Amino acid sequence: MTTRRSPWRTAVGLVLTAVMLFPVYWMVNVSLTATTDMRKDPPNLFPVNPTLVGYQAVLEQQLPFLATSLAVGLGTVLLTLAVAAPAGYALAKLRPRGEGVLSFVLLSSQMIPAIIMAMGFYAIYLKLGVLNTVAGLIVADSTIAVPFAVMVFTAFMQGIPDELVNAAKIDGASHLRTFWSVIMPVSRNAAVTVSLFAFLWAWSDFIFASSLDNGGDARPITLGIYAYIGNNNQQWNAIMATAVVASIPATVLLVLAQRYVAAGVTAGAVKD
Amino acid sequence: MSTTRTHPVARRADEVTTRPRMSPHVTRRSSRTRDRVTAAAFLTPLLAYLILFYAFPLFRNLDLSVRGYTVRNFVQGGAPFIGFDNYVKVFTSQTFVPALTHTAVFTFVSIAFQFTIGLALAVFFHSSFRLSATLRALFLVPWLLPLIVSASTWSWMLNSDSGVVNSLLHAVGVSPVNWLTDPNMALVSVLVANIWIGIPFNLVILYSGLQNIPNELYEAAALDGAGAWQTFWRVTFPLLRPVSAIVTLLGLVYTLKVFDIIWIMTRGGPAGSSTTLATWTYQLGFGSLLPNFGPAAAVGNILIALALLAGLAYIRLQRRQEA
Predict the structure, then answer these.
(1) Contact residues on chain B for A16, CB-CB shorter than 8 A
(2) Which of A10, A14, A89, A112 to mutate to test the interface with B (most CBs of B within 10 A)?
(3) For testing the chain A interface, which of B156, B161, B179, B205 should be mutated: the one with the most A CBs within 10 Å?
(4) What is A52-266's CATH number?
(5) Which residues of chain A does B107 touch, with a Cβ-Cβ cutoff of 8 Å?
(6) What tens-digit pLDDT sequence spans chain A (272 residues)?
(7) What is d(CA A3, CA B215) in angstroms, rounded to the nearest whole number?
(8) Cβ within 8 Å of residue A260, ≥6 positions away
């Protein structure tokens, strides 16, 4: 598209973005504010006396929570890929029975509020004794991503030419080998999109964490922040510093993988 | 995994046509049956997953809603079947009508603002200018942040005594507002935060919808002497209707289930003034010392019914647009 030189539009755009991102700026600003300045009226609009005590508190108190979140996020990515990629291949290339019903089920499953899934999982996990475990949280978190992932893989793999599959077949490759050595390498972009979102959703999850993993040692960072809010109303620099650290995956995602993000937002929502 | 980088299979694809073909009639039927079996094998993990981790929890939730649970028999089993008692309890509860009203208000006000602001921004960004791509990307940030991050940031910004919002209001001569502690303001506060979070999604989808409108139409409108306002209402808005319908219905599905923002900012309070069906379910099931799993599951199933209604409308619309 041609870019017109229109300085006033750029100026308006900058102002709008600044307004939109003000809460994000404010989070960073508060995270650098000294505890004594926290209740100042009016508050400092800029970090005039920046301090790192908030971040020091993160290092001292939140590292285990961050480690749990990392483990839960990676586990969710693996489980999601393992379930969704083969299903996407079957739906895109093998024309299975009941295809229509299955895609209907996948679409509807995305409509189910997580809070209801959490109730069902709680009852089951209590009986199985897997409340407050990383594995239990991974399974629950993956339910947010799996239907989306199947749809992304299906849409992407439909675009892979049939000749590629047929050629592998004629060369004597088994279906499993075709899937693993031909389809998966070509579908890297879909796998990256799915992994990024599965990780981000698991990392950000609060509902499943607070209902299924609220007691043990292995609690994720979202509960770390939540416990902070409940406990010490004064230490908002530590709360906001944790919030800043918890936002790092989203930021990395936006900087490194912007095209995948846009693809993910529009996937399944708008047809071409 | 394949280690070669120049897709050897792709190269071999052209050879396929030059090879002598096998008799198609003999192989077709048996290979189709085999394909069916293979397809089923590749789908097995997903089917097992859906049954174990979707159908089973949902069934468990239904089961919870028709039994009389106490803390003791919840753990030990043997809760009696009580039919629709939990539902009756929920429908006759004093919380039901307010929770339903708050859910409706929260959903419709959220969608109205998210859509209007998202559309205005999409139109603004559509005529590209220097930095427009970068700024548009930055608008995604609120949508990507963990909800607990956004919710706790808004909580502090809206704090009555030390929040920056009241401080800005003070600067222009408005007296401080008890955003989160005044029952008349709590729902407004969570609405503001939720609208902020939902704008990026609307912006991205509507922007991609705008890009599908052919440029000639705008040129024709310009030739006919249409102003910007007229062009928007006569060209952009009508042609954007399919995408608008989709984004609105998806918004409906998403907003009905919003829980995190409200719970973290107000816990549905004060005095239930920002309780929605979603926070009420959680409040009943997990939010108190004595859990009420039966009624909690009943409220949850009412919420599912609402969400599925919205979802079915969305699926029907999408199918019709594809046809």
Answers:
(1) 121, 124, 135
(2) A112
(3) B156
(4) 1.10.3720.10
(5) none
(6) 445 567 888 999 999 999 999 999 999 999 998 888 887 777 888 888 888 988 998 898 889 999 999 999 999 999 999 999 999 999 998 888 888 888 888 888 888 889 999 999 998 998 898 999 999 999 999 999 999 999 889 988 988 888 888 888 888 888 889 999 999 998 988 898 899 889 999 999 999 999 998 887 889 999 999 988 877 566 888 999 999 999 998 888 777 777 776 666 665 443 33
(7) 15
(8) A189, A192, A193, A196, A253
Q: Work out the minimum CA distance from A156 to partner chain B, whole angstroms.
A: 17
Q: How far apart are CA A165 and CA A89, in angstroms?
A: 11
Find the DSSP H helices in chain B. Answer: 8-18, 24-50, 56-65, 71-76, 85-91, 96-126, 132-138, 141-144, 147-157, 164-171, 186-211, 215-223, 228-231, 237-239, 241-256, 260-266, 277-285, 293-322
In this structure, which amino acid lies at residue B267?
R
DSSP H/E element including A184: helix A184-186
Rounded CA separation B69/B79 (Å): 6
Structure tokens at A37: 């300045």
| Among chain B residues, CA nearest to A163 | B13
Are residues B8 and A145 in contact, defined by beta-carbon separation less than 8 angstroms? Answer: no
**Which residue in B has a C-alpha nearest to residue A44's C-alpha?**
B164
**Is the ipTM of this structure higher than 0.95?**
no
Burial of B253-272, coded b for 16+ CB within 10 Å and e otherwise, reads bbbbbbbbbbbbbbbbbbeb
Identify the helix (H) or strand (E) that includes residue A158.
helix A134-158
Measured distance CA(B42)–CA(B30) in Å, rounded: 18
Asked if B43 lies within 8 A of A87 by C-beta distance, the reply is yes
End-to-end CA distance of chain A: 18
Q: Are B7 and A168 in contact (CB under 8 A)?
A: no
Q: Pick from B150, B260, B189: which is nearest to A243 by CA?
A: B150
Q: Which CATH architecture has domain B85-322?
A: Orthogonal Bundle (1.10)
Taking CB atoms and an 8 Å limit, are A270 and B1 in contact across chains? Answer: no
